[in-house]
Structure formats: structure tokens, C-alpha cells
Write a structure and sequence with these properties.
The chain is mostly helical. Helices cover 46% and strands 0% of the residues. The chain is built from 4 helices and no strands. The longest helix is centred in the middle third of the chain and has 55 residues.
Length: 189
């Protein structure tokens, strides 16, 4: 069986081999190697030759198989992990919607209990439908505004024309933002 050559070492090699080294076979005749050039920097640290370093990497069949299994495992598990995270988010959203629904159910049950009370039914019929008992007189007031909400008396009109400095652009922006931020009369469902 042929012997595999040893990977190159970073330690300096002895220039001459001693006679006590392993016997050489005919197939392992040494080839003359070119002498190394001293590529040291001024600080004394030697530079690493990338080609020499890359040639020292040996990739066995077992290592290649294991590396391919790791890549295959990552390729299979990454989408599964994404699906797991997505499902966890959906579960959390559904649990929160269940809590909201349970709160709505509790409110509706409470309202149903109130509608079983005859006094509540009577007050609702009076307020909503304006029902009255026989013999009662109802007075509806049309102008029931708060006095602070009533429009003020108009002051006297002057004969002189006054020009007030008005910048229309900020007023337009205020109007647009107020319209955009206002709540609708019926909430969207």
C-alpha cells in the first residue's frame, strides 16, 4: 500500500537528512524542491503563502459526505424553521382574537341579562322609541343645546376693510390632517 505524503509543515525543515531516517523505497524517490524564499516582513513575522496553505488541506471522502449532509440538513431545516415561526405567530394572533371574542361574548351576555329586567326595557323604550304610558304627556325640546355651544351674537360690521395676513398653506395642511385623523361615524368591522 502506497504511503500518503505528509502535509506541509510550517516548521523549518532540516537541510540534510540523517542516515537513521526511514529507508526509502523505489517508488518514493525524493524530488528536489525549490528553495524557499524568505518573504519575511520587517517585523520578523513570516508571510503565509496561500497556495501552499491550500495545498495542505486534505478532504477525505468521509469529510465530503459529512459536509454534504450538513448542507442538506440546513437546506431541509431552514424552510421548516421558517414555517414553525410563521405558525407560532399565527397561533399568537388567533389566541389574541379568541380573547377579544370572549370579551365580546361576556359583554353580550351582560347586555342580555340587562334586557331581562323590565325596568331596563321600559327606559329603553322611552329613550329610543319615545314610548309613553297612557295618560302621560311628553315634551320634546328641539333647541336643547348647551349655552356655550350656541353661536355668539354678531358684532357690528365696520365700514373699513381690514386685511389680515393669512397663509393658506398651513390652514390647508391642518384641514387635511384633521380630515384624515377624524374617526368615522360607523367603525369598520
Amino acid at each position: 500500500m502506497a504511503r500518503r505524503p505528509a502535509p506541509p509543515s510550517s516548521s523549518p525543515r532540516p537541510s540534510a537528512r540523517s542516515s537513521s531516517s526511514a529507508p526509502r523505497t523505489a517508488g518514493s524517490a525524493s524530488k528536489p524542491r525549490p528553495a524557499r524564499k524568505d518573504t519575511s516582513t520587517g517585523s520578523g513575522a513570516s508571510r503565509v503563502d496561500v497556495r501552499e496553505w491550500a495545498s495542505g488541506i486534505r478532504l477525505s471522502a468521509f469529510s465530503a459526505i459529512m459536509l454534504s449532509l450538513v448542507v442538506l440538513g440546513a437546506w431541509v431545516l431552514v424552510p421548516t424553521l421558517g414555517t414553525y415561526i410563521d405558525q407560532k405567530q399565527k397561533i399568537a394572533a388567533l389566541e389574541s382574537s379568541i380573547q377579544v371574542s370572549e370579551a365580546q361574548i361576556a359583554d353580550l351576555k351582560h347586555e342580555r341579562e340587562r334586557w331581562k329586567d323590565p325596568a331596563y326595557i321600559t327606559t329603553q323604550a322611552r329613550e329610543r322609541l319615545y314610548y309613553v304610558k297612557p295618560g302621560e304627556v311628553v315634551y320634546l325640546i328641539d333647541d336643547d343645546l348647551d349655552p356655550a355651544a350656541l353661536p355668539q351674537e354678531q358684532g357690528p360690521v365696520s365700514d373699513t376693510l381690514e386685511e389680515k395676513p393669512a397663509d393658506w398653506m398651513p390652514q390647508l395642511l391642518r384641514s387635511l390632517t384633521a380630515a384624515g385623523l377624524s374617526q368615522t361615524a360607523v367603525p369598520a368591522q
